[in-house]
Amino acid sequence: MPEKNVAAVLRGVRLLHQVCDAIERFGEDILGPAGQWLKVAGRHKTTVLSKAMKACPTGGSILEIGTYCGYSALRMAMTLPGARVVSLEVDPAHMVIARNMVAYAGLAHMIDIWTGHSKDVLPRLPRKYGGRHNFKLCGVFMDQKGSRYHEDLSVIEQLGLLLPGAVVVADNVLKPGSPLFLWRLCKGQSYDNHVVRVREFAMPSDDWMSVSVLRAEAAQAFAEASVDSPVVEKAKGISPVGNWPVAPEELIQLQWESDRIRAQATRPGSGSVSFDEWAKYASNMKEKMALHGIVETADAANLEEGAELWSAT
């Protein structure tokens, strides 16, 4: 989405709730009717994200990978008042917009936005906050390129940053999709997982969000095997890089297809992806992942207030 579209929602907003409401209205009332998509986790996705963050253990920070315009960072800060939100954004223009959005909302003292590629910034974050023994994460929200989800999570695990019971939420795991990340979670033994069906924000199409709670024994194993730089190490049989079966060839192909359509969707002009094409793509992804045991386990539309779907075992 062009920066001018994101910047437009800055006009006329001052208070925290007004910032988030303005972003949602911009996506639904301006871009949606024009067949364009504002990539924020609004409406049903906000419900899932907020409920998941409320289940986070106390005493840690929240890490977001993929700031975009700052919407989700603000929502998480509202959900967990007093928790520091550390957000990474690869696009410098989006970073500037998000910092201004956060400043307008009055939360610049609680939300830090860093710019750079996650593979470069993640290993350096602990040193920015007093070392990895002082920088612990109670929650993670992944909203970057889906084919990086499993790689970035491995780095976080290897650094030993996750608290027991930490909640890891990932958006867009159906469309454009993150098949290898879902395979890793569903076939591994480190997390209790839910795949939640959601209605895509400002688009007539389904999507999935994954919500994963780190088991206490896995958190301990990661901490004991943690290193200052992300290298491959095993952690008492619970390895951040190798405790699940090799992914089937079809899922590797689906990962390639997700990158292809993601690149097409960000292409300016008439070469983008229509809402109808997105819906067909999501249906195909759902059908093919189901063949490998990856299916939705909850529906955001049916979540009751206070429901606890993601408590660790």
TrEMBL record:
Q: Name one Pfam family in it.
A: Methyltransf_3
Q: Which SUPFAM superfamilies match?
A: S-adenosyl-L-methionine-dependent methyltransferases
What is the superkingdom listed in this entry's lineage? Eukaryota
Q: Which UniProt keywords apply?
A: Catecholamine metabolism, Methyltransferase, S-adenosyl-L-methionine, Transferase
Give the molecular function GO annotations.
catechol O-methyltransferase activity
Keyword Cell inner membrane assigned to the entry: answer is no
Q: Which GO terms describe its biological process?
A: catecholamine metabolic process; methylation
- What's the Enzyme Commission number for this chain? 2.1.1.6
Family of the protein in this entry? Belongs to the class I-like SAM-binding methyltransferase superfamily. Cation-dependent O-methyltransferase family.
Q: What is this protein called?
A: catechol O-methyltransferase
Q: Which organism is it from?
A: Symbiodinium natans
